[in-house]
Hints:
Helix 3 runs antiparallel to helix 4 (57-73), helix 5 (85-92) crosses helix 6 (96-109) and helix 10 packs across helix 13. The protein is built from 13 helices and 7 strands. By secondary structure, the protein is α+β, with helices and mostly antiparallel strands. The chain has 2 domains: 2-149, Arc Repressor Mutant, subunit A (Orthogonal Bundle), CATH 1.10.10; 179-251, DnaA, N-terminal domain (GMP Synthetase, Chain A, domain 3). It is globular.
Amino acid sequence: MTKSVGKRRxxxxxxxSEADRAVRTGMQLAKPVGRNAAAIKxxxxxxxxxxxxxxxxxxxxxxxxxxxxxxxRYNWRSNELSIGREEIARLWTVNERTVKREMSKFRALGWIxxxxxxxxxxxxxxxxxxxxxxxxxxxxxxxxGSDFLARMSDExxxxxxxxxxxxxxxxxxxxxxxxxTQVQSxxxxxxxxxxxxxxxxxxxxxxxGGSVTLMAPSRFMADYISQKWSQRLLxxxxxxxxxxxxxxxxxAE
Length: 253
């Protein structure tokens, strides 16, 4: 299997390190709507499918499940997945306990987040982080081909006279870096502009018993990050320390 993948990469004429470079320099992923929507959706599903095939049977089954959600229930335009746990169980032909476990895994990866929780008479609404999915599948981009890699890394010409935002460099990470530094690096890699505006101002004050407490310089920032970005913080921590289950943001004021 490994030998076969290696041949395909060689024939594609693309070095796998180019995928890493594409992410570092700014992966381009337009919103899958409008004239090019079909091509963008095709690229996302292609990346997911090849990523699944490059792993073991557990990865293949897990990714097949999220592909099923995307192709049957996902609204690409509004970035909403409206579906209940019982319906997911029927779709996947599993029990609801398996659904709960699998959806928790997707949330930990940062692929899925709860947009509106379920309430009486109303199913939960999720949103899917397509950019995070593409970042996590970057290792297989060269396998798909050089044209795919080019689409992910080519930056379109600006159409306005507005000076583009130049993101600050992220924190340097060494082998001995602490957990918070690694989390900051993950957040910066996911979205440099968001990191520069919000996450870089946070500091870790406590981490014990599966819970993390972060400190923000103002009450407004603490409340806003808690409301909007707590799932992303938890997903980043889960990649560094899987034992982390909750992240709380407090104010220094």
